[in-house]
Design brief:
Blueprint lengths: L1 H23 L3 E3 L24 E5 L7 E4 L1 H6 L6 E3 L3 E5 L3 E6 L11 E6 L1
């Protein structure tokens, strides 16, 4: 019985170590680079590799923009209905597997390029 308990403890420790290694290897991407979240975002993610667990950070002046996580239809139509709205001015989102769509729902910002799709691998 003692040996089984020790094996369970060892496996739990190894899992914690692996999770810590994965977290410490995560990258943070400032969406839009030095310019931050704003107009003409098309092409910003080109050439970047986003791993599951990486962080995308949206920096912008509060009230000037927001970030709304939407589905593909909302992204293509610039429709934020049903999306998750973020508005802190420094929003951080963990990259999940697959494509995540982000738009700004203020005025016609999305239609003018304040939108980006990120693919987590």
């Amino acid at each position: 019985m003692y040996r089984v308990d020790m094996i369970k403890i060892f496996l739990a420790i190894m899992l914690c170590v692996q999770l810590q290694i994965n977290i410490s290897n995560a990258d943070t991407f400032s969406v839009g680079g030095a310019n931050g979240w704003g107009f003409n975002m098309n092409g910003w993610p080109n050439g970047k590799i986003f791993d599951v667990g990486d962080v995308v950070e949206f920096k912008y002046k509060i009230g000037m923009h927001n970030v709304v996580i939407v589905n593909k239809v909302g992204f293509n139509s610039c429709n934020a209905t049903g999306g998750e709205v973020l508005s802190s001015g420094d929003d951080q989102v963990l990259v999940p597997k697959g494509t995540t769509y982000f738009i700004c729902s203020i005025g016609d910002h999305c239609a003018n390029g304040v939108k980006v799709a990120i693919i987590g691998k």
